[in-house]
Specification:
This protein has about 250 residues and is of the alpha/beta class. The chain has a domain of about 180 residues: Rossmann fold (3-Layer(aba) Sandwich), CATH 3.40.50. The protein contains 9 helices and 12 strands. The mean pLDDT is about 90.
Amino acid sequence: MLKINNLHASVEDKEILKGINLEVKAGEVHAIMGPNGSGKSTLASVIAGKEEYEQTEGEIIFDNEEISELEAEERAHKGLFLSFQYPVEIPGVSVTNFMKTAINENRKAKGLEDMPAKDMLKMIREKSELLDMDRKFLSRSLNEGFSGGEKKRNEIFQMAMLEPKLAILDETDSGLDIDALRIVSNGVNKLKTKDNAVLVITHYQRLLDYIVPDYVHVLLNGKIVKSGGKELAHKLEEHGYDWIKEELKAV
């Protein structure tokens, strides 16, 4: 699904990623953890193709295709989805209209016609029920006046509608109370299949109690320095990152 080889990337000429290697297979959930400033959000942004980040070396292979030269929207059309840490407010554009546009743009990129209105409404109804969303929510302007939990739930609704092959959740848990965290996590879990994959970027082990990862990777100073199973996240919660830094010094 995703293979990253020796990925280097910089922002405003400052190198942030310093040789990332990562492989994510279909059906898997991978978690990326690390302290502030280690490069977690940069990694998500570079995979998604955000233009302010410059990939200086290495390759990103998504679904057997090298995508480093593709624009962000081209990557999205191929099935890559990024849930933002801080979703943007778009006044005057309803959640429903935003989703209709996104889905039909994806269809156009695949040479398909717009989805018929009745099919679109049926899909919207099914996915909003899946996520326990109030239907009134769908007529509101995108993210305008939304609480933190509503913004994050809306991101998962977009993911449900777009049905990506790879979903990258960039600190989806930030600012969420326990109830909102549970609802968002349930949504992600319901959308998992053997044919898609999820990359979860988080500071906290608590999210991983709900979205249980197959693999946990620790990012420090722009490199993945340790990988393991879900028990690694528990150890990080208990002991922090200093023990890993000591291990690295000893090598």
